[in-house]
Amino acid sequence: MLAHVLLLNLTIAPLWPGTLYGHTAQTHTYRYCRVNFGMVSYCGRWFTGKTVLWDRNAYRTCHVFNGRLSYCGAWFTGETVIWANNAYRTCHIFNGRLSYCGQRFSGEAILSEGQF
């Protein structure tokens, strides 16, 4: 999967196992995109240099600077993507617990605004 993402002209730096982070020097705007069988499918909303970390059924938004996590905010509940066995799924969070989880898909990357 990494080779397919590199074809999108992204600089890839792993933040934690199973997660890819894309960054270009031209912009500080990012988006999550699903990658199915080496092709980019659904892409989420644009955001500016932030990502969400998951730990103990809670989440926090963290700023990303030069491919590294910097300041992280307070823990909250909401929605995230869970990675297991080289597949991903989007799950909703309610009162600190996972509720509905969608179907598994084969990849996730963060693409910069200038890529599409």
Number of helical segments with 4 or more residues? 1
- What share of the residues lie within helices? under 10%
Strand content: over 45%
Q: Summarize model confidence as the mean pLDDT.
A: 58
Measure the end-to-end span: 19 Å
Number of strands: 11
The side-by-side strand order for the widest beta sheet comes to 4-3-11
Structural class determined from secondary elements:
mainly beta
Question: What composes the largest sheet?
Answer: 3 strands, antiparallel
Q: Radius of gyration over alpha carbons? A: 14 Å
Tally of individual domains: 1
Structure characteristics:
116 residues; mainly beta; 3-stranded antiparallel beta sheet; 1 helix; 11 strands; 4% helix
Give a nutshell description of this structure.
The protein is mainly beta.
Structure, explained:
By secondary structure, the chain is mainly β. The chain has one domain (2-115). It contains one helix and eleven strands. It has a three-stranded antiparallel β-sheet with strand order 4-3-11, with no helix packed on it. The radius of gyration is 14 Å and the shape is globular. The two termini are 19 Å apart. Residues 1-27 have low confidence and may be disordered.
